[in-house]
Amino acid sequence: MGNGIRMRATFASVAALFLAACGGGDDSPPVASPPPVASPPPPPPPPPTVACAVNRAAALAYEERRLTTPLPASGANVTTNDETPVATRILVDTGFDGFAPAFAAKLCAAGGTTQVTNLEQAVALVKAEGAALWRAAVDRVQRRRASPAASVLPASDDRMLYWARVAMSKELRQWAPSFALSAAQREQLHWEFERASRGQYDIDFPTGNNPAGKKYRRMIISGFDVFTLGTPGTPNTGLRNGNPSGATALEMDGREFTLPDGSTLHVQAYVLPVSYTPFLRGMQEDTLGPWFLPGPKRIDASITISQGSANRFNLEAFNGRFTGPTSGNDGIVFCPPGADRLPSFRWAIGSVTAPDTDPITDVGAGCNVTPPQRWVGYDAATRWLKDFPPQFIESSNPHAAMTTGNTQSGIVRPPGATSQGTEGFDVLWQTSFSYFPDCNAVDTVNVPTHTVFNAMPDLSTIPRPNPAWCSRNGGGGSYLSNESAYRNTLLRDTFMLDIPAGHIHIPVMNNYHSQAITGQPRNDNAITDSRYEAYRTAIVGQTKNLLVVVGNSLIFK
């Protein structure tokens, strides 16, 4: 019996194998084999690199040598003694101290290699890093970028942009890649970085109509760097200077305002250097020119802004071609004092205009503004021409509306400021100028302004420049404020535009506590105090009001 059971089991096993081989058995489909597992793609090759180094022995530019200079830390007007360089104090407080080290690491990593392998990549890097610095500064001022927890400087402070730019410029100057860079190519890198970090490549405007179907009105404004910073290495209070025109540019960049007719005023801003050579090379024209050209983004107003007189806004009537003897932030002087101070004076290439500064490198440096041929259509650099460009150019801002527009309303007057009324600052249509009756003699004649504040004078009493004269001062003097105004209005006339174009000279903001004015001790070691901040707040606020008045005038165009 056991054998029979084993035989039946064997037969069943054989039958099952036979049926399986023939496709018999249950109705379940055959199990598919899993697909082969694909191998992961190989990692991309690392980006190519080249060797690099940091040349700390490279000579620094004049402005870069101020990076290690502190405020006075002793003396009768000092109540604290922080000997940290001013630049470091401002950058750490605002959270901008990381920009230069991060830029340096991209230029040359710790291992002595860089992913920047040629000039084209270097240009792209400096433009990108400059643009990032500009956007960060705008974001901080417009309160989209947080400050460190221990920060004492308010969001409105403009100084971090200047000092971060100078610190990054130093890193670029000391960069030593293994591929060759000529002196001209290095200069190109600094030029592109400067322009990008000043917002000059960031400008763009909307086209067509706003969402309500009304026009966009396009306004471009400029501010300036901090200036009068003193001699590098010498502690001085000028190092802590801010510039409310630069603060206004950062505050206004990208802002929009609804005008009375429902149209939208869209503002774009950029910042100019306080040095002559970038102007001579056409930095301002290259920034403005593309927006003066015909097209859907052509601007409707171009306003230059700078810091000027105490306790008042000056709206200059006349801009002069003359460049005075004041040095720029780089220490260079374009027009010498004394007997050489004539409109036709030009420096020879290689001339050193002041101790310990770079020599003159560009044709046309001298006592008269020289616009770039690529924008005005004639060569004013290789030889002096009295009337090309003109000696005086007039502003086309809506001065009557600006002087009578009550832009002081709501502006808290800072401690120690003096003006009519109880709010803000006076506004003056500044009609002064001075001139050389004989363009070949140093004698000059001054024409003073009227003194009617917050209103327009009798226009029949206002003298105008004679085309036979040569300019010595415009209403804004003969420094870079006047030059920015002159170049702006010259470009307006070159393109024959009927737009507001002119200058706003805003009050000086660099006022700190003193026992006589605020009852608080003066401290030349402080980077800020409440009086200083009150001036910036008031000046930027009233400047914004003046710009909106200009915008409102556009609805009648």
Automatic annotation (TrEMBL):
Keywords: Signal. Residues 31-47 have a biased composition (Pro residues). Gene3D superfamilies: Peptidase C15, pyroglutamyl peptidase I-like (3.40.630.20). It comes from Piscinibacter sakaiensis (Ideonella sakaiensis). This is Putative secreted protein. Residues 27-47, 395-420 are annotated as: Disordered. InterPro entries: Peptidase_C15-like_sf (IPR036440). Coiled coil: none annotated. The keyword Signal applies. SUPFAM superfamilies: Pyrrolidone carboxyl peptidase (pyroglutamate aminopeptidase) (SSF53182). Residues 1-20 form the signal peptide. The lineage of its organism: Bacteria, Pseudomonadati, Pseudomonadota, Betaproteobacteria, Burkholderiales. It comes from the Bacteria. Residues 395-410 have a biased composition (Polar residues).
